[in-house]
Amino acid sequence: MRLEVAIEKTLRAREREFRLDLEFASDADVTVLFGPSGAGKTQTLYAIAGLMRPERGRIALGGRTLFDAAQRIDLPARARDIGYVFQDYALFPHLSVLQNVAFATSRSSMFNPRAATAEVYELLARFALGKLAASHPHQLSGGQRQRVALARALAAKPRLLLLDEPFAALDAPLRARLREELLAARARSDVPMVVITHDPEDVAALGGQVIALESGRVVELRMHPDADDHGSRES
Prior knowledge:
By secondary structure, this protein is an alpha/beta fold. It has eight helices and eleven strands.
């Protein structure tokens, strides 16, 4: 499913000004936005998700226009069919694992676990969360919280999944294991992903289309040498 992004946005905070001005397209199953802190990676995800409105440009997914400044098209986030896993996972602390995942499918099942669909329980089993269904986020490890966030994002059946530094808070052994789990989950769900990272090891492990950003611009665009192992898509 082809993702096309061509956007411009000036961001101001106090006396600092940051200019986001980039263009890229990807047909890959895994697209990695790579670059140092402050390169514009998260703002790019926000724009794709509909959480930030560019001043100019266009964003399309699978031929469907999500944003076009010239045509005054700006689909709200809820209408874009895009899942988002935030860096801090953004789980609801007062809800159980089951309720967090069910939230993406039905508000009624969120408050009444007995109404949760079979798909919710299937996702819990897929991510080895079945025995933790009644637990709350503060009772989970970093890796377990990430699995809950990923299961919740996939429960909504998105056309695209965005992940903001998904391994940043984890130690090296856990990072390696969860990279493998993430790729396995992507393959099972058949949902393309855009992952942002500043870690070259993530780039090496995830493969796919690599888009390097610096100071709000694309400075390099390449296919990872092992991209064929992870597959690529045609629009």
